[in-house]
Request: fold
Amino acid sequence: AVRPLKRKRQLNKTNQMQHSNKHAGVFDDGHGSRGRDVCRRHELYVSFRDLGWLDSVIAPQGYSAYYCAGECNYPMNSSMNSTNHANMQALIHLTKPDVVPKVCCVPTELSAISVLYYDRSNNVILRKERNMVVQACGCH
Amino acid sequence: SGHRLRPPYVFPQRRLGIHERRDMQREILAVLGLPELPRPRASPAASRQPASAPLFMLDLYHAMADDDNGGPPPPHLGRSDLVMSFVNMVERDRTLDYQEPHWKEFLFDLTQIPAGEAVTAAEFRIYKEPSTHPLNTTLHVSMFEVVQEHSNRESDLFFLDLQTLRSGDEGWLVLDITAASDRWLLSHNKDLGLRLYVETQDGHSMDPGLAGLLGQQAPRSRQPFMVGFFRASQSPVRAPR
Reply:
């Protein structure tokens, strides 16, 4: 009986964690900032519906923006999309952590989204916004 | 404080106040390049708005999405990052006076064009139904920009495009009006006037309506509209707030 409770409390904590991240219209996958996993892409959905814009935005109803988070520690394997420089910086960080910062987990490939909406004169506008969706993360 | 090793990417966990949420939404809109406040809830008048432009733009939206996934971009779309359709329109006809050439004129409000956008292409789209008189003949449809109107004489016109078709043809007629964009970028607040003429093979002027060209009286999905394709001429500088 205790374990389910513990698990329930654990779930509540996770939900609470997700809830606190749930600013109107922005959801992430909740465990992105806790686990010590390696640099990778995490789910982050921006919902136009929850932002109350569906009177103006015809399509889409939201989009997956994603974000990058995770550790960039030496040695970095190929999946971490790192550069020689990043490997060098990670090595030097090990020897001088107060001087040289850690290598950052950042987007290395981004793509555009298109948004179809009404403007104030009821004209229909199609706008392409570049660099809005993370396609890949890496250590840099 | 640097000594107590905080998890490297924990974000401050606190609820945003009402004003902060409103500011946050405004910032998200700015990042998306959208106008500041969403359009007010659709008024009843909006339901009588032409549906032709939204339907066309929805097709462009899907084509742009395909373009992102490597599909062939439709014409004009590949070089544009903004497409605007204009429906706010006033329509004027001169079709009753038998001596003058007949024409149909369309006025468009271009005030919503954002600054810093360069026109890559512009089209005027009007739907043509099959026309029976005269039967099975060639029609020449020409489009002009009304540059300057005069009370005592004909307006100054600037030729834009000419299309030749058969009286029995049906479908969307697309007229290239890109050449008019030089002027409209200089004077946003002046309505753009487009004038349409139809002539038969032997040069007689014809009422565009009789030729099957539908104006504002057409069903909502077939009303004429204008489309502008734009490219941002410089990367938008986001003012610090």
